[in-house]
Amino acid sequence: MVATHLPLGQKNLPKPMTFRQLIGPSFIILGLGLGSGEVILWPFLASNYGLGMVWAMAVGISMQFLINMEVERYALVRGESIFVGFMRLWQWLPIWFIFSTFLGFGWPGIGLAGATLLSQACGIANANLLGVGIFIAIGAILTLGTVLYKTVETLQKYLISIGVPAIVILTFWLAEPSDIAALGAGLIGRGEGFVFLPVGIVIGQFLGAIAYAGAGGNLNLAQSFYVRDKGYGMGKYSDRITSVITGKGARKSFSLTGNTFPLTEENLKRFRKWWRIMNIEHLLIFWALGLFTMLTLALLAYVTVYGMEGNEVGIQFVIHEALVIGQRTVPMIGTFFLIVTGIMLCATQMTVLDSTSRIMTENVLLMGTKGKSRVSAVYYTILWLQILFGITVFLLGFDQPLTLITLGASLNAFTMFSYI
Fold it and tell me: How far apart are CA 100 and CA 85, in angstroms?
């Protein structure tokens, strides 16, 4: 059944931003992939099977680049999230998006992985209790930031700008020419004793790694929120989520529906300029930087711990990496590696909580609203419910973050293929 209560306004398409003004949303979606596929799943596969599967990494991120650009084009033209468009197609789709988003990303595996690495670096005995503190801190950061989009974008920009170069320098300091040659061979599917896929690989882990070669699952669709909130195209006319404490979110209502533009010569000319520069921004930041970072982290795992006993147990391989890095350099650098990767994982968990709360908020409101909605109030309610769920999982004693991440990744692979 088609929804009939979602009117679409009409205004002229704003002038395109400069490239510098445009930069932002791709850092957020890159950050979503950094803490799952890039730091955990692909290095896990490299530490256990070598570099012969990195071809799938390139396939996965290229596929998600195409998906993301279609999502961005929708938001550019209509100034609303793509979930509003799905609602116009069939009014019961929001139920699927709420269910699949929580099922795929509700498990706090990424945050637990970050807490595990930070507890190892800082000598804290109970990683689960540290995870509780991290989730509370995430909630405070997202709640106290005046404009939600700016809070998330700024944090991810700084973390990626500092963390990625540090890891790149470390990797190429430790790597030998033969290691880089093995990486190149892996890009065409040639591994050590196998072609494309090794015997005995867990298919769920492999499919999950492909899904997490980018954001994965419904989080690709969340790119429409960030494009809209940044003010791309018709998003300039849209409202943004503000804090219920430091902003006006508690009492402010706004429409979920957007505006499109009349097909005049000037508007079409502006659209082509917008589309070209948006493709360049996403290609450079999400695809090129994302692929380079994933390849680098997989290479680092390979040159430090490939074939080491115990790599197959949870995220023990990351701790092994830090120990080997400390042995080959100085112990402080190994500890620094754990801290950087731990913080990156925690930042990813924050962005996941933001994105999933946005998705569920909008779909909850789409099922009930026929006008303006108090989006911020609903968003922060769902955010803190998710945080409480994560804390409950920690307190119940779950201590295998890789299992939770792999479970979520496998579910998100199915979810992603359902809307391609």
Answer: 18
| Residue 106 DSSP code | -
Q: Which CATH architecture has domain 9-419?
A: Up-down Bundle (1.20)
Q: Which residues pair with 10 in a beta bridge?
A: 260
CA-CA distance, 338 to 322, in Å (whole number)?
6
**Residue spans of alpha helices (H) in 214-264:** 223-230
Region of residue 397 (phi > 0: left; psi between -120 and 50: alpha; otherwise: beta): left
Per-residue pLDDT tens for 288-302? 999 999 999 999 999
Q: At what angle do helices 316-328 and 148-174 cross, to 10 degrees?
A: 50
Token pair of 362, please? 């909008």
Q: Report how far residue 406's alpha carbon sits from residue 184's, in angstroms, rounded to the nearest whole number.
A: 26
Residue located via tokens 């196998």: 194
- Among residues of the chain, what percentage have pLDDT more than 90? 64
Q: How many CB atoms lie within 10 A of CB 95?
A: 12
The answer to whether the beta carbons of residues 55 and 187 sit under 8 Å apart is yes
Tokens 């929001």 sit at which residue? 94
Contacts of 159 (CB under 8 A, 6+ apart): 31, 343, 344, 347
Q: Is the pTM of the predicted complex or chain greater than 0.85?
A: yes
Domain ranges of the chain: 9-419
